[in-house]
Structure prediction request, 316 residues.
Amino acid sequence: MKLFLGVDGGQSSTTALIGDETGRVLGRGQGGPCNHVGAAEGRKKFTGAIEGCVSAACEQAGLDPRQLHFESACLGFSGGPADKEPILREILSTSSLTVTTDALIALVGATGGQPGVITISGTGSISFGRGRSGKTARAGGWGYIFGDEGGGFDLTRQALRSALRFEEGWGPPTSLHGALLAATRAEDANDLLHRFYTTDYPRPVIAGFSKLVDEAACSGDQVAREILMSAAQQLASITAAVRGQLFQPGEAARVAYIGGVFKSRMLLERFRSLVELEDGNLFGPPEYGPAAGALIEAYRTACLEVVLSNLPDREK
Prediction:
């Protein structure tokens, strides 16, 4: 029996899926975070996370990890692939190894392996796509200082800027001012600004306050609504930029989305309407998760076209 491995390595956890040559998923395992390997301690955590999740998947599949060989393996990471490949070649026995980014495996999972574009908006934002020729393209994802428009951090930044302008008397009234102060127990917007500059508020925590923008917009706050509409426009713009690099006008292309920002129905609906303005876009939620995307890519690298089966619900 030929075995295939797909791994989604993230900042909070690592997930492995093992499948056979028919596309049937045999086992799933989870391990710790594995996005940094620079220091010796980071390398140890990385190795432990990979070995841990693969061993857990083997246990569920009834396989002996000590005698395990994969026909093909694909692993995607949020921290970039370059420094991880040499380590993976030491700890995995595989005939073919693909080490790539989390954007690619998210795309492959979202489109079920078909050509298309995925736009990711969590703490930050990025759009990534792959055309029928295999060519890839990206737009956005340049970090919280120079980019990440439409991401959670950016939404909170825009909300705080609006609160500051209102507090200083040169911006329109907005309930975001009171909502931010109540959520953080800050004395005023200026106090909150200085708190956000400290290590007590890392970027993911700041991004989490973006839900206040959605709540305010749904309650009729015009400033919050404009922030959401602007974010949807920016996300649609990077989606269109990627599509334009990979697909001809009117050519069919899957367009999917993923990330916590899209939990805002108002933003998602505006994003959908903008994406569907372009002929050929087939818009919808992701078909599978990133770990399944990594497994599909492992099959693709081995020139196998399969339909996944026995996939755990949490990976759909």
